[in-house]
Design goal:
With 441 residues, the protein is α/β, with parallel strands linked by helices. It has twelve helices and 19 strands. The structure holds iron/sulfur cluster.
């Protein structure tokens, strides 16, 4: 089979990254190799994200740029995948004749067949969110970016319907991969030298809840902990309402589970949390933080914050700032609210003006900057375990890796290769990373 080339432009979250890795695996089997030069590609794919503002316009403007390659060579195929494809698939096909196929969030495995149809002159659309189209198919053939740390999807979709979020509409209802399939994938990864896995899903804590035969999330953690050769386990994202005592206990007792947790709070105000349909209160959240800190000393907590949600008053916002201080996060991701079509929050009254939302976003980021720097500086003089991921792109002869708390470390000294676990003495705490030197390898 003659090798063809695919240019894949990927946007968005870790689930999209994992889908892109799976897609490259599926296409590899179909005879494609990846290129980062769209001008030499036989196939151009956009794996889209609906979370970003003006996501749809972005897709059409990207298509406008990329279709010039098809205009030069009509044999080039163009496909659109991911969350915007799921939400706007019909519109994309109707409005952009250069697009040959559109596959939604569970359509990765269908792409080779859609390519075949396109070569025969047929445009196609795959938007099913039904479970029988197992989105985990061919997952073990993924072509991964890292040779050390792998993303492993365990649950797709979401049943929570937070009022601002499009995910339940574009990724469908929760569907958990069978534990045996995940275990097999993780064993294979460990056998190929992967040291770390991150279990991913919109809400990993819901894993297995819908099936009596399957493990629950805690059972899955215990199962994967036994995999020989695997050194570290992480997972993301955890919904605060579903983070159970048993998962906290598993994190405390299973040494391969890293002392790091991303627990998106979104707001510190009960009123805003209720309007967001988050299903927990400020005090529920802070109690879980306390439980985590008691059970797992030194745990690094990170979060997401939305500012400027409709109706967010100055007092509500102050509650968010005070929660950030109280929870003492290691890092956070903050976003300014913007309405997403079809969500409940789109219809909420009382919008927060742009200037106020911008000021609040800056205040959250400034506060967190201080907290992160303080925490990084407190690590100076300590020795931490680092999983070596690769060369430091900025300093030749130095390495880059992550601590168990998921902090990036740039370091020199010692003879190491990617995949090694080394002890590094921290010399500097910077705003976004740590620097140090190897003390053992
Ligand atoms: S838990 Fe809420 S924010 Fe997360 S994916 Fe589901 S609906 Fe969206």
């Amino acid at each position: 089979m003659k090798t063809k080339t695919v240019y894949l432009k990927n946007f968005g979250c870790q689930m999209n990254n994992a889908d892109a890795e799976q897609l490259l695996g599926v296409l590899h089997r179909a005879g494609y190799r990846a290129t980062d030069r769209p001008e030499e590609a036989d196939l151009i794919l956009l794996n889209t994200c609906a979370i970003r503002e003006k996501a749809e316009q972005k897709v059409f403007s990207d298509l406008g740029r990329l279709k010039v390659f098809k205009a030069k060579d009509p044999g080039v195929l163009i496909g659109v995948l991911g969350c915007v494809a799921q939400a706007e698939g019909k519109k994309i096909l109707a409005r952009e004749p250069a697009v040959d196929f559109v596959a939604g969030t569970r359509g990765t495995a269908e792409v080779p067949e859609m390519i075949r149809k396109a070569r025969a002159g047929e445009r196609s659309l795959f938007l099913s969110l039904e479970d029988e189209f197992d989105p985990g198919r061919f997952r073990n053939e993924s072509i991964r970016e890292s040779r050390v740390a792998a993303l492993v999807p365990i649950i797709y979709g979401c049943d929570n319907f937070c009022s601002y979020c499009v995910v339940p509409y574009v990724r469908g209802r929760e569907w958990s991969r069978p534990a045996a399939e995940i275990l097999q994938e993780v064993r294979e990864l460990a056998g190929r030298g992967y040291k770390e896995i991150t279990l991913i899903g919109q809400n990993v804590n819901s894993y297995g809840k819908k099936s009596k035969e399957n493990e629950d999330f805690c059972g899955l953690l215990h199962l994967l902990h036994e995999v020989n050769g695997l050194e570290r386990i992480r997972f993301v994202t955890s919904h605060p309402k579903d983070l159970s005592r048993s998962v906290i206990a598993a994190m405390a007792s299973l040494h391969k589970i890293c002392e790091a947790l991303h627990l998106p709070v979104q707001s510190g105000s009960d009123r805003v949390l209720r309007d967001m349909n988050r299903g927990y209160s400020r005090s529920d959240y802070l109690k879980k933080v306390e439980r985590l800190r008691e059970a797992i000393p030194g745990i690094a907590l990170t979060t997401d914050i939305i500012v400027g949600f409709p109706g967010e008053s100055e007092a509500d916002f102050e509650e968010t700032l005070s929660l950030i201080r109280e929870a003492d996060f290691d890092r956070l991701f903050a976003f300014r609210f913007s309405p997403r079509a079809g969500t409940a929050a789109e219809k909420l009254p009382d919008p927060v003006d742009e200037e106020t939302a911008g000021r609040r976003l800056a205040a959250v980021l400034d506060l967190q900057k201080e907290q992160t720097l303080r925490k990084h500086q407190a690590l100076v003089g300590t020795t931490v375990e680092v999983l070596v991921e690769g060369a430091n792109p900025k300093v030749s002869g130095e390495w880059m890796g992550r601590t168990r708390a998921n902090k990036i470390v740039h370091f020199g000294g010692g003879r190491t290769v990617p995949g090694d676990l080394v002890d590094v003495r921290i010399e500097k705490g910077l705003p976004n990373c740590l620097t140090g030197r190897v003390v053992s390898s």
